[in-house]
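Quick start: what a row looks like.
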Amino acid sequence: MKNSQHYISEAEYIPDLRLDMAFIVRDDFYYGDENDFTQEEWIAKREPLLKPGIPLFGKDYLLSSEVLGKEEQLQAYYESVVAVANKYEKKLLAGNSYFWIRPIVYSSDGGTINFPWYDTLTDALPFLNALQSKEEGCVFSDMDQGWHLDVFLDKENICFVFGSLDDPEPYWVVSTNRPVMAKSVEDIKQRVKQQIAVLSRSFGYDFWTERESLDFTEMDNNVLS
């Protein structure tokens, strides 16, 4: 494997490379059988969800920075998820796809690392914490669902190497200012934890921090009023 200085020296430097956490927003709720269904049922057995009136990044990423000050719109979206789940007596578990939250690294020209293999805050924390490392060299490496990501640090730069396990050449090799991005990580973690805390108090349960196999079908409908 090529060393950190090779990647950092060859990376495209993007001064305004952004980092955030995103709540994954669905258009509708599938209420059919999850194990035995036809393609027609998969398409037909859906009920629309109340979408937040906040611009999305791409198709379904709602950035935590965009939610700031508008948390009630995100809460209303999750209330619609719970209402439809209760209507069809569907189980809602922590880490369920309707409550996924993921990091995202993105640039103004459309380049992204959208972490499709992470679903909860706990999944994302090792990556976020690595960006605050005091070390140099490769501080983070992960692969899942056919993707791989490595993060390299030197004194001034954070470098992301993102690609497919099927391709020896990475798709995206980019770097940015290390002190600036490292500082933003703490702001992002605190913001998201606060947003999750507000949502968790509202619903009486934390769906976002970590995955659990808890049967939460019986939710008090008073939280929806």
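That is the whole record. Residues 4-202 form one domain. Confidence is low (pLDDT under 50) at residues 214-225.
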